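call fold(seq) -> C-alpha cells
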Amino acid sequence: MHRRSFIKTACIGTASAGLTFSARAKDASERPNILIIYVDDHVSESIRAGALAPNIKSLGQDGIYFSRAYTSAAACTPARYSCLTGRYAGRCKGRFLSGGITKEGQTWIGWNTNTDPGDTMGAKVLRDAGYATGIVGKLGCFGIEDAGNSNMFNEGDPNDAAKKAEFTKHQKVLIDGVKDFGFDYGGALFTSNMGPDQRHNPEFQTRCCLDFIEASKDRPFYLHFVPHLMHMPSPLMSLKSDPKSVYGIMLDEAPNVQPSRESVLKRVAEAGLDEKLAPATWLDDSVGALLNKLDELKIAGNTLVMFMQDNGHHGGKGSCYEGGVNVLGCWMRWPKGIAKPGRTNNSLMQNIDLIPTAFDACGVAPPDDYVIDGISLLPILKNEKQKLRDSLFCEIGHTRAVVTERWKYLAFRVPPSHEISPETRSKYIELSKTDTTLDPLGRVTHIHRQLGGCNTDRTTIVDHPRHFFDPDQVYDLDKDPGEQDNLAVNPEYAKQLSEMQQLLREHMMKAPGTFGEFKTFDDMPAREREAWRFVSTGEIGDGPNVNTKALEQAHKKKQ
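ret:
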C-alpha cells in the first residue's frame, strides 16, 4: 500500500546489526519472536463485561490464559517500567524516583519512575543477543533528554504545516531516544498520556507494528506494542472521529490496516452491546491485524505473544487493592512452545514475569548485574509445572502488599518526613468543610501527591471507605474479593495477620528501600545501606508536591 512520506517519517526506525549469540543460547533458527502487547486501562474490564474481542481471546484459546494476573504497581508509569525490565519499580534508577525516596530510605512509587538509559531494560539484553527490537505507542517511563511532552500537540490547528513539521521532529527525537534503551526501531511514539483534544489512532500504531514485523521477518525480533487504548481521552469519541486524526495532527491519509471504524460500531450494535464497549473491539481489531501478519509471513508458530493490561481499573487504580493490582488476566500464545493449548492457569503471575519469560524462551542469559524480580513462566507454558510461587509483592506510595492464593495483606506506613505539619493540617481541615471530597481529618493518603489525595486516591477512598486509612489490612479474597471487611481489626484473625506481616517482611528483605518496621536501614547489607543513604534525601511533608497554596487554588476554581 502506498503511504505518504509523513507516515514513513513518523514510523521510521533502523534495525540493529546482528551480534554473535551466546553459546548457551538456542540456535538462531529456534529462537522465538517476542510480541508483548501492553494495554492501558479498562480493556480487561471491558472483556469481562462482554466486549467483542475474538482476537484477544484466541490467544488463550490457542495458548494459555492466566486468570490471577497482577501488576507490581498499579499506575501506568511504574507498571510500564516493571514490564520492560522484569524489576520492581522501586529499583528505577531515574532521577525522578531518586527525588521520591524519603530520608528514611522508603521509596515513594507513583508516576515518578521515568528512567535513564543506564537503567538496562530487557530490550538491551535481547538486542545484544541478536534480536531486532522495536517499540510502538505510549512510552510512559522513558527519560529522553529534550523530548518534551507529546501532549504539547494538543492545541492548535491539526492541519497546520508548521505543527506537522514540529511533530515529525518530535517523533525523530523519541525514535533516537529509545535506541539508548535498547530499541532500534520506534514508531507512533508518545511520551505519556494524551491531552483532551488529541485522538486515539490505533490504526496508526498498528501500521508501525506491521512495518517492523515485515522488516524483521528474517531474524528473531522483540516488539513491544503499547497502545493508548483504553485510557483517556474518550476512546469512544476518538473511534467516531476522523481516522486521519492522530495525536493532535492530521495525517495526509488514514492508515488502512484493519477493519473500518464504522464496522466496529456496526458489529457492537448488532451484538446488542453498549457502545461504550466498542473501543475494546477497535483495539481487538489491531491485535487481529498483527496476528494476521504473523500468519501471512508464516512465523506465527514460533512467536510468543503476551497480552496484558498495565493496571486494574475496577475500584482501586493507584493502590494495592485488588481493583488496582489485579489486572483480570494475561493471555499468551506460542504454538511451538505452549503445551496443551487452551488451558487456564489459576496460579499467581505478575507483569515482572514477562521479560524473564521472554529471556528463558529465547535462551538468553542476562548479564550478571541485571537484577530480575520476576520469574520465568516457561515451566507453566510447557505444562511441566502448574504453580511457581506462593505469594506476590506489590508497592505504591506509602503502601506495600502481599498476595497469596486466598489472602491479601496491605500495610500503610507514612514515614515521619511525609507527615503533615499541624499548621498545614489545620488549613486542610478547614477546606474540607466546604469540599466533601477532602478527608475531614486531614490525613496523609496512600499516594499523597497532594493534600487530600490525587484523583485516584479519592476514588479509592470512595470504593474502600471503611478501612482506607487503617495501617494494617487483611482480606480474605475468597469471601471478600472487593476488600470491604478488614480482618486485621478482628482478634480472631490475629494469627493470620502475624503470618502475613512476616511474609511481607520476607519480601521486603529482597525488595528495594526501607518500609516502616518491616525493613529499616539496619536490615540492609552495609554496601546497600550506604548506597541507599546517598539518594535518600527527598523530603515531601509540606514541600512543593503537597503545598496548601495549590490546594487552595484548586478549591477556588471548583467554587
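The chain has a mean pLDDT of 88.
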